[in-house]
Specification:
With 65 residues, the protein is mostly helical. It is built from three helices and no strands. Helices cover 85% and strands 0% of the residues. The longest helix is centred in the middle third of the chain and has 20 residues. The chain is elongated and about 35 Å long.
Length: 65
């Protein structure tokens, strides 16, 4: 379930970046980080995977804007 949510949010982030919608992308970036934080706190995802995903979305968002 968490994986599907991350996939959906990532697709939406890609679309917002493609449309140059910085505010929408910022909200989606925050939602992704929230899901990552929650999944780590609930021990659904390990720290290493969480860190890798965090830096991937971080690079995507800040690389676009």
């Amino acid at each position: 379930m968490v994986e599907q949510m991350l996939i959906t949010l990532d697709q939406q982030l890609n679309e917002a970046i493609h449309r140059h919608q910085k505010n929408e992308a910022r909200v989606l970036y925050g939602q992704i980080l929230g899901v990552l934080d929650l999944s780590m706190r609930l021990e659904i995802m390990g720290a290493v995977e969480n860190t890798q995903r965090f830096y991937a979305v971080h690079r995507k968002f800040y690389g676009a804007f």
